[in-house]
Amino acid sequence: MFDDVVVLTAEEYDAYVIACLETEFGADYPDAADFVRDEHQRFLDARARLLCAGAAQLDQAAAADRDAARAAAARARALAAFARSRPAAMFDRAPGERGAASAASVAARPAALTEVSEWAVDEAAATLGISARAASLMLVQAVTLVEGLPATLAALTAGDISPAHATVLVELAGPVSTPQKRAQVEAAVLPRAPRQTTAALRACVRRAVTRIDAAAAAQRLAEAVRNRQVRLDARDDGMSAMTTLWATPLARACHQTLSAYATACTYDENGDRDPRTHQQRMADCLADLILRPHADHPPVQIALTLVTGADTLTGHGPGADEPAEVDGDLVPAALARELAYVFGLLPRPAPATPHTPSHDTDTAAHASENDGTDTVDDAADDPTDTVDDAADDPTDTVDLTGTVDDADDEASHTADDAVPSAAAENDASGSDAGGNDAITPHDAGGGKVPPTGEGGSAARLAALRAAERAAARELGTAYAGRPADVGSAASAQAALTRLLDTRRLIDTALAERPRIAVTDRLTGTLLALTDSIELRAAAATGHGLGPPPGTDGYRPTDPLHRFVRLRDRRCRFPGCRARARCCDLDHQTPHPHGPTAHDNLACLCEHHHRLSHQAPGWRLHRDPDGGLVWTLPGGRTLTTHPPAFGTDDGSTPTVIPSPPTAQEKYAAALARISASSPGPPDPLIPY
Fold first, then answer.
1. Is the dihedral of CA 540, 541, 547, 551 positive or negative?
2. Which residues contact 600 (CB under 8 A, 6 or more apart)?
3. β-sheet bridge partners, residue 239
4. CB under 8 Å to 127, separation ≥6 — which residues?
5. According to the model, what pLDDT value does residue 420 have?
6. How many whole angstroms separate alpha carbon 425 and alpha carbon 219?
7. How far is residue 643 from each of residues 22, 189, 638, measured CA to CA in Å?
8. Residue range 319-346: average pLDDT?
9. Helical segments of 99-178, H only
10. For residues 338 and 346, is the Cβ–Cβ distance under 8 A?
11. How many CA atoms lie within 13 A of 479 on its CB side?
């Protein structure tokens, strides 16, 4: 765009023309940039040429990446075909046969390679010159991609996504329980995957998997919580890394607490600044808290922001399986509810009252094994004690800022393919309309049919009558079209209403009053951030809700700052995942020329805030619909929007252009003809 453009004054141009006329025949003409006398203009011209040359080189790198993606797709197909050509039934010894692989060795193999010969990994490793572990991982990814994720393979073949994007989908969408649900995950995330970084794609895939395959996600959560651990790995130069695997809310709370302790140690008792960095002080504070737990540590206070839908928090409704966010980290719905129970935001639901104590233990265990409800309970119970202990510690008070998304306005609640929660499956399979376990003739009397006789006949008759009543209630509930847990849903909604109506924060875990995020049902855009008092006042007076008003000053007000942070939630630069808590509020039109209002403010991290004002060749402006349009030095434009609430939407929306009309096609053809140069004359064509 700039490589042939040099700005010359009239005198400089005359000198350049004379030099060109004096150039000998066959020699190259002089460079016009050499005739620029103004050093500043010479610098600008040189920088413009460098910007354009660098953009062209990036285009070449992008083309090479597309070729690498196509090559990766071809390699995946070849490896999957190789795996199919090595069936275990034809190449391995049968279990129990002399010399066959042990049961432990077979169980340790990846699920994708259970039908592949155990010698296939060694053959691939020797042929490709890689380790057996790398060959096993490569075969697993190839088989999963080719056989389980056809849409992802097609996008990789077309060069629309990179091999790293395909790896993210294989890792997160590959374990989804059924092919239909995997197809739903692909349809939800692939349209905008080409414009996302791998980190942004990973967040979108996690949200889609958690929502679409909720029951399996709850089981994986329970398994992950049971596998919490502390590991010590030796590093170079006499250092070691201690890694702790925790549930996300607990890990976030502990990390923020360490950060608060490190901030408290910034200055010593004499007022001198500590020479250590913030990260160094965090590491030293962790060691001090572990090795000297009874020392006199300064009290600190932190706040976690929970963003969740009302259905998620109550566990009832079409959006009950929609995941939540804790300080920007995605957490499953079961973990969000457990967090609300632990901090006393909502009462823990009471278990259903059993009919027969001698029988209900077996029935409950049987139902749990079938529908996975024990997995959800384990997932919720395992992190409970640890979080509760942290909350009760007087030296580590954890506060929670509850931000609740309105159920009526949340876009996720309109999803038609919502997966029923594990609790709903349990009610449908083993409970009556009242929420109690239905007694069948086989189950009465501890799982056996009562014997015949005087006492046995009475018990048998009572069991049959109970079964008939249970069946009648279930049938009546089905015809009435009401859920079986109407009472529990009503109590959960009443508890949520009491939480939103909280007036006093004393003796609660709340740092602020819970706020209600009113979002657009179709786009998921944040429209207003309010509370129950303002909501009732608006309903009584007939006034609508909207963003907080702007201010004449440079710094935004607290409500405006809170609204913009919750609307953007992350840095608005393409692909940046910096949380809004760590970002600046940038005026798109600088103050005082532009207002301090929600439609002129956006969250940018410090680095990208400086880039928007200082980087040569970059331009930033705001679209009327609120999108930030970033123009790169090479002329390419990227538009980012705030992520939608309650969806697996990324930061960059997918814009599907409408097909061109016949008139537009004709105008485009005329433009191409006008811009094309005439070809050389052909002696075979006389006209």
1. negative
2. 550, 587, 588, 589, 594, 622
3. none
4. none
5. 32
6. 14
7. 62, 14, 15
8. 84
9. 103-107, 120-128, 132-148, 150-157, 163-173
10. no
11. 5
